[in-house]
Amino acid sequence: MAEQGTVVVRAYTSRAQIPVTGATVAVTHPSAGGKHLLVALRVTDESGHTQPVTLPTPPAAESEHPGTAAPYTLCDLWVEHPDFQMLHVENVQIFSGVETLQVLPESPLHAFPLRNQPK
Fold first, then answer.
1. Residue in 79, 82, 69 with CA at minimum distance from that of residue 105
2. How far apart are CA 25 and CA 92, in angstroms?
């Protein structure tokens, strides 16, 4: 039986950790040649969380011996929202039987003004 782990994203902004609602989160799996395979798309809810994304993982028992493969699956997260700077997180580790909560601070676009704009 294949083992699985999950990832949930929590997007927020400011030191007050205000939830970012309506952010699109793409979960991808890195593949050969630097390409990414889309695993799932989710949208953050009013609390800034996505629904869980389930990924296949290596069995946890395989990591108990030296020289064995990594006991996790890697995925990348791409977070986009019209009011915030796009965020890309690489190599998020997903372990068998574990729900990974990836907390991501979003930077408002107004914090990064465009250069050479007429005043």
1. 79
2. 14
Q: Which whole number is the average pLDDT over 89-102?
A: 94
What pLDDT does residue 112 have?
55
3-state class percentages of the chain: helix first, strand second, coil last, to nearest 5: 10, 55, 35
Going by the DSSP 8-state scheme, the letter that residue 83 receives in this structure is: T
Residue found by looking up tokens 């408002």 in the block:
108
Best CA proximity match to 38, nearest among 29, 49, 47: 29
Q: With bands split at pLDDT 50, 70 and 90, how would you rate the model's confidence at 54?
A: very high
CA distance 98 to 118: 51
Structure-block tokens of residue 87: 């965020």
